Amino acid sequence: MSRPRILDRFSLDGKAAIVTGASRGLGQGIAVGLAEAGADVALVHHSDASETKARIEALGRRCLDLRADLADRSSVPMIVEKTVEVLGGIDILVNNAGIIRRAPLTEFTEKDWDDVMDVNLRALFFLSQAAARVMIEQGRGGKILNVASMLSYQGGILVPSYTASKSAVLGLTRLMANELAPHGIQVNGIAPGYMATDNTKPLREDPVRNEAILARIPAGRWGSPEDLQGVAVFLASAASDYMQGFTIAVDGGWLAR
Questions:
Q1: Regarding the domain with residue range 5-195+225-249, which homologous superfamily does it belong to in the CATH classification?
Q2: Does residue 256 register a pLDDT over 70?
Q3: Cβ distance 221 to 214 under 8 Å?
Q4: pLDDT band at residue 80, thresholds of 50, 70 and 90?
Q5: Three-state DSSP state, 11
Q6: Amino acid 4: pLDDT
Q7: Does residue 121 contact residue 223 with C-beta atoms inside 8 Å?
Q8: How far are the Cα atoms of 3, 26, 92, 171, 173 from residue 223, in angstroms, in the given order?
């Protein structure tokens, strides 16, 4: 029996993707998910992405390993040029990389503010700008996925720069969608809920906070990187061609509570 035609719209065969923060956690899950759907993937990271690379290559897909410091804007041209050179273009960009700093508002330092904003917002904007230029020149459209957060919708505590950056990601996703739609480029977001990653390790290790968080999640568990794969493939594929400027929460029901 042949595959139903609707499933073909979710295929990423022949597509070239960039995923930032792809060495582990959510970025690794998204990168592997895109590869499973058929994409070749450029991994942008600042540590060791060998595990992610091995998993993608085991699927028979091409994988480009790009070590870069996203806080340094000069890394953007290298990322774009290398991806085009090795993978033949850019069809998908996933802005996943993010960092967090925790301290009370009255004690929060300028460095902790700038470090977070540089990676979570500035790098996202300028890499999107550079990738969009390539997509426009290619003339075949494209997909940009921005990873937001529950703190795009809520204030949180002890993470002022993270909340500010992720709130801005929500708005910037809408602006980018408006400007790039005429070029056939769809820009949407993913807002992960409470995921079991390095960023949330302090919360999971705090018995009081961990219990309080789990008590509010209808699904009754922390999310995993694999929980984002389906929505990432959807937003990166032709199945979402009429979606523009919307951020999907993958949160186990947190926002519905």
A1: NAD(P)-binding Rossmann-like Domain (3.40.50.720)
A2: yes
A3: yes
A4: very high
A5: coil
A6: 72
A7: no
A8: 30, 10, 24, 24, 23
CA–CA dist 25, 44 (Å, integer):
13
Region for residue 196 given its phi and psi (left: phi exceeds 0; alpha: psi -120 to 50; beta: otherwise): beta
SS3 per residue for 52-95: HHHHHHCCCCCEEEEECCCCCCCHHHHHHHHHHHHHCCCCEEEE
Report which residue type is found at 207: P
pTM over 0.85: yes
Output the six-digit token pair for 175.
Answer: 């602006």
DSSP 169: H
The C-alpha atoms of residue 24 and residue 41 are separated, in whole angstroms, by: 14
Beta strand 63-67 with 92-95 is unpaired
Q: What are the two backbone dihedrals, phi and then psi, of residue 86, each rounded to the nearest 5 degrees? A: -90, -40
- Mean pLDDT (the chain) is 96
Domain ranges across the chain:
5-195+225-249
Q: Return the number of other C-beta atoms located less than 10 Å from residue 108's C-beta.
A: 16
Active site residues: 162
Terminal-residue alpha carbon distance, the chain = 42
201 Cβ contact list (under 8 Å, min separation 6): none
Q: What is the DSSP string of 92-130?
A: EEEE---------GGG--HHHHHHHHIIIIIHHHHHHHH
Rounded distance, CA 11 to CA 251, Å? 25
Q: Indicate the helix (H) or strand (E) that contains 257.
A: none
